[in-house]
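This part of the workshop introduces the protein records we will be handling. An example says more than a description, so a record of this kind follows:
>
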Amino acid sequence: MDLRHELMEGRAELPRVGAVVPARGIHPPYIVVNGYDDEIEPVTAYLRDLALNDSSPLTVRSYGYGLLRWFRLLWLLGVVWEKATEAEIAVLTGWLRSAANPQRQRKSAGAAAPGSVNLRTGKPVLRAGYAPRTINHALSVVSGFYEFHAHQGNGPVTNPVPDSPQRRRALAHRSPLEPKPVLGRARLRQKVADRPPRSIPDHLWDELFERMGCERDRALLEFYVSSGARAEELLGVGIGDLDWAGQKIYLISKGTRERQPVPASPQAFVRLARYLDEIGTPPADEPLWRTRRGADRPMTYWAMRRIIQRANEALGTNWTLHDLRHTAANRMANGGKLTLPEVQAVLRHANIQTTSRYLAVRVEEIFDKLTEHYNAPRVERSYPTGYNADDIAAVFGA
């Protein structure tokens, strides 16, 4: 079996050479270097274009890692980037479909099997390899790279990543309020299952809340589940972003990167006041949420993620930080007090169809109704007296 087939079958690994490193400037904020720490100029040109088009630094960084993976494959195959064809794209797709994702490795002995379903939450455990969305994102990154260089007059004449012109034309001028047409996927694109958002049922939420070991963590969960803020958005809030009288917090929204007000529950502010009584008021230019061990420093996303992981290990669940946002959205959308446009405003969704997904009914939420349905006695047929039994059987098949 040659090297290409070994890669497509997941029997060979890409070389761990090169890196994505911060740049000295801001256009781009990150660059990609090879194994000799030399900057890859074609990648830098593309990442600079992304930055100039107002892409966030995290987007530029993500695209940098996608292109680093692509160049590692080309280096292994001995193909220069200008000569790449769809054959190399097929090798990349096959490797992503079959290779193990190092971010999904389970180190603990009692970890759930990849792809299994947690019976307490109903959520599937992430599989060992790369997700279909990750594969499609990798193809989009490489496609954008070659599309940019084709516009600049560099690289191959034809983009090596297969495209679907029919799909692109159909979606080009579609209104967000129109239903999305069902069209065929481009070659090598993966099928992505459309799963409804997963919220935490009330009894499991109470268990999770009880596992929080300090006032800081309880305050964070109250803010997450009442405001619907994303994980990193809330962790960046400072003392000057609190509106105590208006029961609002101001945070930098992920999509627009603008400072926006978000309402939160009175109980969340009570918990926050208790937390601030414990640690004191942090500096005005520092985030509210601080670490509890070691030197005083802002709390990171990974620290908050680890808090949820420890609670999951104790409870036998597999909740994530983003499930807290789904829980807030589900409570607002189905509580009967807010209209769907009002929920959209709180969650800061650009499209109301995204908000409407939280109106979907899940089997777990209708368990009591299903139990009542299954236990209901069968309806017995009865006929008025005076009719001959043979006539009833002939007419009704009884």
